[in-house]
Write a structure and sequence with these properties.
Chain lengths: ~290, ~300
């Protein structure tokens, strides 16, 4: 039981928090702009690498470097939107998807050029885990889960308590109705990018802390992020967050040795769990758990 | 002279193989509006199928069976279509972007299987000593003969793609792409038409993969790169003009020429700079995609609407 909590439940929650942060942004972008943003993973990697540069360059803690990560991903998202996506807004969603794919390649190339291909880790002091009744908690894992919780709380306040957040939800529900009701769609789109880019920067730093940094780190979790968003119901930020946690837990628990010491799924196939979840969702409940758009 | 002929045959062979991949993507995206970002998965399955069938028996992987290429290559196309079938049947009923996401998953799973199932694929060691048709003719005549063979396959597939495009089947595909409701009202079954186009495109990619392994005489989990096999093929199709088979082939040849030329230029640079040049090229593929989408969304040779395409 303790083994399950220490090696499956807690890592699952940490991974789930990271997926949730990434998937929430994807879901918001999908809701407001109606396209699958394929550059999200590479935006995440950009955030992680800038945080690394800031924390080593300025000698600050990794946690304090998160604002620097966001200060890179937010302009990157806004520039990509202004240069490319905004001009294609009237085309088919598929064209925007292809364009975001091009942006993904450009971001990845920049990361390779600036930081090189070799995987690196955040300079984190080694601290002993906290132990409660046999449950071992790594401090960084506690911070990741708390950090994701704080992000969720802030997003909730923005979406439900502010005028801008309400405008965002209105546009997600019915863009034409929102426009004729006087919603400033351009401003809402900018706000969506800012929120999604901040969330994905945090996700990138957390992913780097949980594992390591490499230029394809974000692309590697893109499938899982989409699967989380679709599982939760695309266009529904809360659904995406919930879907992320479920998927994170499913991925980590998939290797649990249930059958006489042999893992349910060989650990090397862990990243296939996201695909299975995606396919099962599409088969059984394509609108997702929380009735997103189909 | 001999060296130049060998180099030209190499470039020509790869250009023809990329044209086959681009034709496959054109059947899916250009004609039917299906986004496939997992091209690598279908190419790899075709590649491994052909490799295992044609190679001589080995203890490090299943087979090989020493089957002649003219049996193994169609089998490779069939294997890629078989891979496309279940996912297509599920994801094609839904919105276009869900297929794009699902295809990334297919590519990932194929990569995992290729890397981890040693008994089947040889794992990281891959499959070696894959025979290439006409290699008994020696260098460079063997390579030239192989180029002619690949060129003939391209010509045959092009004719098939043209026939499909201009047939009632092709018209129905375009109708489904442009107005699904109207196509339904005319008694067409969009889900089935999409599935057929998806399978056909995947078969082209599998066949392309088979020719690639025969050319390189090797396949391993890292032998095929997503940068070229998936992304570059998209640029080729968008640049050439999606929806038009002539555009697909022209785009493949033109983009391949630029790609090969920049590869040659980069190779002239000293060590560290050559690595960086590879990243600059990756950036430029992304940028090229944007520029074409914005400035020339129909590509070099766009789709002709109304009259049959010649």
């Amino acid at each position: 039981m303790l083994e399950f909590v220490n090696f499956y439940l807690i890592p699952g929650l940490v991974l789930g928090a990271i997926y949730a942060l990434s998937a929430t942004g994807l879901s918001l972008i999908y809701g407001v702009m109606r396209f699958a943003h394929f550059a999200h993973g590479d935006l995440m990697a950009l955030g992680a690498y800038v945080a690394l540069a800031a924390s080593t360059g300025l000698g600050i803690s990794v946690w304090a470097s998160i604002p620097f990560a966001a200060a890179a991903t937010v302009p990157a998202a806004l520039v990509a939107d202004a240069l490319f996506y905004a001009r294609l807004r009237r085309s088919l969603p598929a064209v925007l998807l292809i364009s975001s794919f091009g942006v993904a390649l450009m971001l990845r190339a920049l990361i390779y050029l600036l930081f090189g291909p070799t995987p690196v880790t955040f300079p984190l002091p080694i601290v002993p885990p906290l132990v409660f009744e046999g449950i071992r908690l790594q401090p960084r894992h506690i911070w990741i889960i708390l950090g994701a919780g704080v992000c969720a709380l802030m997003l909730h306040v923005i979406l439900s308590r502010t005028r801008a957040g309400r405008a965002m939800r209105a546009m997600s529900d019915d863009p034409d109705l929102a426009r004729i009701s006087g919603v400033a769609t351009a401003a809402v789109i900018r706000l969506t990018w800012v929120i999604a880019a901040v969330l994905v920067a945090v996700a990138g730093v957390f992913l780097g802390l949980d594992t390591q940094l490499q230029p394809v780190m974000g692309f590697n979790v893109l499938l899982a992020s989409f699967a989380s968003a679709i599982l939760g119901g695309i266009g529904r930020p809360w659904g995406a967050a919930f879907g992320g946690v479920i998927l994170g837990l499913a991925e980590e628990c998939s290797t649990f040795p249930l059958r006489d010491g042999a893992p349910l799924l060989e650990p090397t196939y862990k990243s296939a769990v996201a695909f299975v979840v995606l396919i099962v969702t599409l088969l059984v409940r394509p609108q997702g758990l929380f009735r997103g758009m189909i | 002279m001999e060296q130049a002929l060998l180099y030209a045959a190499t470039l020509g062979t790869l250009a023809c193989i990329y044209a086959v991949l681009t034709l496959g993507l054109n059947l899916q995206w250009g004609l039917t509006g299906l986004m496939n970002f997992g091209g690598l998965g279908f190419v790899a399955v075709g590649a491994y199928t052909a490799a295992l069938l044609t190679a001589q028996p080995s203890a490090t992987h299943v087979g090989g069976f020493g089957v002649p290429w003219w049996l193994a290559w169609p089998a490779a196309g069939l294997a890629a279509a078989l891979l496309a079938f279940p996912v297509g049947a599920i994801a094609l009923r839904l919105r276009a972007d869900y297929l794009a996401i699902a295809t990334i998953g297919i590519a990932e799973i194929v990569r995992l299987v290729a890397r981890n199932e040693d008994w089947l694929t040889g794992g990281p060691l891959g499959v070696t000593a894959i025979p290439r048709p006409f290699e008994s003719l020696g260098t460079p005549m063997g390579q030239v003969a192989f180029l002619l063979l690949v060129g003939a396959v391209l010509a045959a597939l092009f004719a098939a793609a043209q026939a499909a495009t201009n047939s009632p089947f092709g018209r129905a595909l375009r109708a489904v792409r442009d107005d699904e409701e109207a196509a339904k009202a005319a008694g067409k079954n969009p889900a089935r038409l999409r599935l057929h186009a998806f399978l056909l495109g995947a078969a082209f990619m599998g066949l392309g993969g088979a020719m690639m392994t025969a050319f390189f005489k090797f396949i391993g989990p890292d032998a095929l790169e997503p940068v070229t096999v998936t992304f570059l093929v998209w640029v080729m199709l968008i640049a050439g003009g999606s929806g038009n088979n002539w555009g697909a082939v022209a785009g493949a040849f033109a983009v391949w020429a630029v790609w090969a030329a920049t590869d040659w230029l980069a190779a002239q640079l000293p060590g560290e700079a050559a690595t960086r040049a590879a990243y600059v090229r990756l950036f430029l593929i992304g940028l090229a995609l944007q520029v074409i989408l914005l400035a020339r969304p129909k590509g070099l040779i766009g789709e002709r609407v109304g009259s049959p395409q010649r």
